[in-house]
User: What shape does this take?
Amino acid sequence: MSSLAEVARAAGVSVSTASRVLTGSSHPISAKTRAKVIAVAEELGYSPSALARALVSRTSRLMGVLVSDIVNPYFSVIARGVDDVASRAGYVTMLCNVDRRTTTEITRVRTMRDYRAAGVIFAGSGYVDDPKEPELAKAVRQAREQGIHAVSLAARDIGCPVIAADAQAAAYDITDYLVSLGHRRIAFIEGPEGMVATRQRRDGFLACMSNADLAGSAQVLPGGFDFEAGHAAAMRLIARPPLPDAVLAANDEAAVGALNALRQARIDVPGEVSVAGIDDLRVAQFVGLTTVSLPLYEMGAMAARHIIDTPPGAAAGAAETTPLSHRLIPRETTARRTARA
Assistant: This one.
């Protein structure tokens, strides 16, 4: 591939003139010179740097996706939805791991500003009463003032549109399904402490148990969003009999961990204990886990489409929320409760 200097030399112009033509600068250049430079660039197969174009046009085809945990398959499904839409439109997706740290999110948003990104997508949940949230909202506002569009895939008060499923309603519905099977003593394995997503899913579980007059038999266990957390929580249940009728985990990864612990202890699932999760990741399909399917791919795809379709400088409604529906997926890890001796 030819360099800018070679294009300038072949066209008989200065490097600065060639650069202005090929990066779309508004600097006054005659139509004849502009046409000549473009013709030579095409003949030599020159392609200007995407970063250089971004510096001149103050925008690029870069789309940042901020994920809480890059190894969590929840985020890989979302990222695939973003990238499928983005790549078809000629955009590049940059996946950024933030380790559930608001300070890292702030840094990544500033990086997106430096690279003149077209948009940034917050794929993960925030924290309840997060003292850093106002600073993140300020960074988002500054990014939007530069024409960078922001979208959140979880309910967050950071000044950008939200595209999300109702996690509380999903937890309510899967709990209601367990109750409909005759389960009365149900244990819920929470997500990471302090996260909004954790509270939403726990609140959905507790609301359903209360409405079913089962609040007294609801059990909430500390946990997390990974296999190990679910396994450890189930081991605590096993060590303190009697076992509950059913175990619901805040996500599929933790549910599979709990399922593994119960089976290792030779406890019949679902004969003795039913197990369910939330998300409907591939691992849930592999083990036959009853769960709630959240539209993760669609969330990512819609966020990317929003960024692509919103013109630079257009003001998107900061309080706008697009709710997406969920779907109950009954599988082999749950069954109707039978009478016990």
About this structure: The CA atoms of residues 113 and 143 lie 6 Å apart. The longest helix spans residues 73-88. The chain has a mean pLDDT of 90. The two ends are 79 Å apart (CA to CA).
